[in-house]
């Protein structure tokens, strides 16, 4: 099981001093977070993709390429790659390049984002959101697996005899997670391709998460990729920790109350009760996170966000606690009782080994056709 952190790249304002973090400081802070995560032995660093203030990561491949040169073992991922508004040809080439630079330590989480105006900013119509996610990913899937692609779709100009360059490292495309909070069509899409499904559940009650993951697992099995409990699932979480729970709540409350995403919503206590937000002791974080398995079954990736509105000093303190006190216990506890047939989170190495084993058995590789809107609707 993989454990890591993700950042949406929000520029913060310190509620105590009123100091607004600069974009430069936030970008450099994200690099330092990733480097420390690598040193602490975490598995994954993921960045969001946003094109509006107060967020800074508008170019994930640039940021992750820089981090790749400064880390050794960390898997570099996106917390969202906007499959709806990015051109799939550019995604194919940008992330294949990053894959080469990072020696395979790359995967992606496809999503539609949560900022409605991003569609017209990039010449798209939000009413086409699901169709764009389906069509664009079908093209991307082919671009990474076919050397020469002829393509005709609804939402972009046709391609004739096109080859995306560079080709994926070792002929193995980056693993893809499809991220969604509320759209069953995306869970269906992930299942159709046998890809991962990441439910970024940090704002949602567990009952909703259970339904979405269960749908994905059923459809994964339906499409013949394996048993339902072998489907590749990831979850999110948000934490703030101190040795005493009352200190954690007291310190975190001003950041919560002035947060870009939480302000003017439910109270801290209500949010903690109805979502995975855990503000308390490391032991409480461990107990809460272990309960996720009771809800969705054995899963492959757990990512935490630590920096929604917090200054760097506090974020780095939380990262130390996570890496030294929380994750080692979670690794041990999640391993207990985990069935042998439940797969680990895919990596470039494991995907390459599986491809080579398949080639050795069959002497060839096959390619499934694309998924259409009408298939997702079922």
TrEMBL record:
It comes from Actinomadura logoneensis. SUPFAM superfamilies: Bacterial luciferase-like. It comes from the Bacteria. InterPro entries: Bact_Lucif_Oxidored (IPR050766), LLM_FMN-dep_put (IPR023934), Luciferase-like_dom (IPR011251), Luciferase-like_sf (IPR036661). One of its GO terms (cellular component) is cytosol. The keyword Oxidoreductase applies. Pfam families: Bac_luciferase. The keyword Isomerase does not apply. Keywords: Monooxygenase, Oxidoreductase. This is LLM class flavin-dependent oxidoreductase. Residues 1-297 form the Luciferase-like domain. Residues 356-378 are annotated as: Disordered. GO terms for molecular function: monooxygenase activity; oxidoreductase activity, acting on paired donors, with incorporation or reduction of molecular oxygen.
């Amino acid at each position: 099981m993989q454990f890591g952190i993700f950042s949406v790249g929000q520029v913060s304002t310190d509620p105590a001093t009123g100091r607004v973090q600069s974009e430069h400081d936030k970008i450099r802070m994200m690099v330092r977070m990733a480097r420390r995560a690598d040193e602490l032995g975490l598995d994954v660093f993921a960045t969001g993709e946003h094109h509006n203030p107060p967020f800074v990561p508008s170019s994930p491949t640039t940021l992750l390429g820089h981090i790749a040169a400064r880390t050794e073992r960390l898997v570099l991922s996106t917390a969202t790659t906007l499959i709806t508004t990015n051109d799939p040809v550019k995604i194919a080439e940008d992330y294949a390049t990053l894959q080469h630079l990072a020696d395979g330590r790359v995967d992606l989480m496809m999503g539609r984002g949560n900022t409605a105006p991003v569609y017209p900013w990039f010449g798209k119509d939000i009413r086409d959101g699901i169709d764009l996610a389906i069509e664009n990913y079908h093209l991307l899937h082919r671009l990474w697996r076919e050397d020469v692609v002829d393509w005709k779709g609804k939402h972009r100009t046709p391609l004739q005899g096109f080859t995306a360059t560079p080709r994926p490292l070792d002929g193995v495309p980056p693993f893809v997670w499809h991220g969604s909070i509320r759209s069953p069509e995306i869970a269906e899409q992930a299942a159709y391709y046998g890809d991962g499904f990441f439910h970024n559940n940090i704002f949602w009650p567990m009952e909703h998460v259970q339904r979405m993951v269960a749908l994905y697992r059923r459809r994964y099995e339906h499409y013949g990729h394996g048993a339902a409990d072998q489907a590749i699932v990831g979850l999110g979480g948000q934490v703030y920790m101190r040795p005493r729970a009352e200190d954690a709540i007291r310190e975190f409350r001003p950041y919560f109350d002035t947060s870009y995403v939480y302000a003017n919503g439910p109270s801290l206590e209500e949010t903690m009760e109805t979502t995975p937000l855990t503000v308390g002791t490391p032991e409480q974080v461990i107990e809460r996170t272990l309960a996720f398995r009771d809800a969705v079954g054995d899963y492959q990736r757990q990512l935490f966000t630590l920096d929604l509105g917090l200054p760097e000093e506090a974020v780095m303190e939380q990262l130390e606690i996570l890496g030294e006190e929380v994750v080692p216990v979670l690794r041990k506890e999640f391993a207990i009782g985990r069935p042998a047939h439940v797969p680990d989170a895919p990596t470039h190495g494991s995907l390459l080994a599986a491809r080579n084993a398949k080639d050795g058995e069959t002497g060839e590789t096959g390619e499934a056709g694309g998924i259409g809107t009408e298939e997702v609707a079922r």
